[in-house]
## 1
Amino acid sequence: MLLIDDEVQSFRIVSRLLAGCERPYVVEHAETYDEGLVRVGAAAHDVVLVDFHLGPRSGTGLIREALRAGARAPFVVLTGHAGAEVDDEALAEGAADFLPKAALSAELLDRSIRYSLKQASLLNRTVEALESVDQARGDLLAILDQLEQGLFLVDAAGMATFANRSARTLAGCEDGTLPRPWLDLLPLRPEDRERLAALQERPSGQ
């Protein structure tokens, strides 16, 4: 675990409180904004405690910058100035939790850390699942693009969102022109186009 706080006394207090927890914690200390950002970037800590005030800069600014750089460890903001406005700012910038220093206890710290780790795990699993879905979709579309038969994927509004290579050749369009109404992509006679459009507008079950 990493504590980013410009006060050595805060590090001593947090270390002493966590030493009384059943779960063993190893706490490392970064005293400045820049040092903390570098160490967060090394991705060597499961959770990061960060003071709301870091000299002339803020802990929420560090969180924002770290998350933009790809940090995945959860952040818990500590501050000596409790209040809804500070709390809201910390959570809005991506902190998993917020704790006032005046109320710190071993139990509160331990519970906050465990909660933050659980939420981070769920978030990381969600990101990984979405990445897997995107990869699977990309693989599927690449396979469909190799089919000799023309194929359109059409959404509920009748818009073609994908056309494989054969379908694009048939329609004389490029993939970048989608989405478009799928009927516009087919070489149909006017009367056939009107009949298909009427069928598309008919409520299901009729």
## 2
Amino acid sequence: MKIQIPENAKSFNNPIFKGIDKVVSKDALKPVMSGAYIKDGNIVATDSHVLIEIDLRYYGFTEYEINILDDCFIDNDLLKELSALKRDQWFFLNESGFNIYKQGSGRVNKVLPFCKMSEVGIYPNYKAVIDVPKKEIDCINFDAKYLSFIQNIWREVSLNPAGNGLKIEFGGSSRPVIVTNVNKQLDCNKKEKGKFLGLVMPIKID
């Protein structure tokens, strides 16, 4: 297939969505959480214990690509394939999917398709978990390994992970731990990128 990059699209030669496959559900009874959901310019993934929400502009996507990806589902196999792309593998996005090619070849080697969320099911209302009132607490129990997952994903998307740290907020002993970026970043056009958000559900101890 001859390469025909859409006028408003960009070409990329870097892996994307690295680490997100670690936070999607592996439970066959939860197919809607077995991949990532893209909505309103953010990519969201959760396994019901940990959740991430990342502005797609962190990955360099333009409004053209963001509009194409809106309300789409990226399954776990596709997440892994996109995160494993080599530096000599370029891609651009169109309605057919992620078009992979080698620079100078003039041809698309393969197309990695995605589907609409409606073809898989209804994604959980994750906003209801994020938007909770904050209150003082004495202690909270949670699995710290999920903070490591969130930190590793942040390192992949942040321009300066050391200088732009993460903030942890506690909403209560039975509410999730919320992790957000401290400072907003600017993209190459000096436009602010949206929030990076991670969430870890508490472990309830009887």
## 3
Amino acid sequence: MSYFKDYEKAKKFVEFMNMPEISESGRKTGTIKSIEFRNVSYTYPDGTKALDNVSFKINAGEKIAVAGQNGSGKTTIIKCLTGIYKPDSGEVLVDGEPVFENPSIKSRIGYVADSNQYFTSYRISDLKKFYKDVYGRFDDDKFEYYNKIFRVPEKKRISQMSKGQQMRTAFMLNMAINPDVLDYMFDVYKNSYGNADSRTHDYGE
């Protein structure tokens, strides 16, 4: 999400993230019981060691925020969790199953990056169709529910959107796939605290 200039905006964001989720069927989306990193290490091709023997476990219903300086490994943790990166060593497990190259697990994970590589000629309607083809759980009603809040013009092409509108679009699309795990990134108090940022992780009960 975009950065917040004052406490009240941050407070509203927290209140929004605690809103009840909806779906046409009314089902609860969270079915994952645990996420675990076991002695995970990852080094980038240039030799930068981003993660060194990282271990933790998160149980269902918990919300966590991973905070730290630029380059401390926050984004690498999320990219390992979403199966984008394969750890050099160790395991990333969701309900005891490895995430990397595991489509059945990855389809249950939503990921909102701080920059989004969408097809720039697409409109929102095109993106919704794309997500429906990829994610069988995509919920049109849920997308429309969130867009009543964010009010992103659906006729705009991605190339015509601001970065903030692209982030909101990505958030709505990922909420609409009814993920069991949602990872999203946002800058907090960027003006006041330089490049300090936060990576937030949430998954349902």
## 4
Amino acid sequence: MADCADVRGTMRLLPFSPTYTSVQSMRVRSCVVSRSRYPLERLVRLTLDDNGCLVVAQRSGGGRSAWVRPEADLLRKLEAKPGMARRSLRRTPRSGVGLLDAVSHHLANQVAGSLRRAWRSGRVRLPRPSDPDHLPQLVSWQSSETSSPGAMLPWDAAGVGCLLGRSRIHALVALPSRPTRALLLDLRRWHELGYSPAPLADPSSL
């Protein structure tokens, strides 16, 4: 079985079925880079560490925070000009170095956690011959099993299997449920980041 700490891949998204679009809260915030307003679920929360540097924060944490849409070009701009978050934080950040990698790692862990929760709930499972064609499939990176609507996971078959305690998993079926909607939303946000993921964290730490 592959070491989960060494699993890498790239993300490709297949069309989502409108049936499984997540209905989220309409709370919105402004991205500190683009100044456009988005639902909270499409943004990443940032705060300052003890050294005054921008870091990724938990969504529900307290204190002053800034919000950014997790697109690579926006994050690069914020890394170069961290002062764009000054108004939200009421303090000028000293540095934004490493922010792009930090957001990528944060979202990869979020996708991994959502996948494990959906798997444990039984609403994401291995395909069965009797499954209807309209059910979304979650296929491993580089898999050829892409005929059904759904999404491609950012790990290969060994990585998905490692995450879920199996040897290799090439495809999964997503059944309607709250954990499944959360997983599909996380995959969409991950895709919007637009670049290869950081190594998958050890699943035991999620």
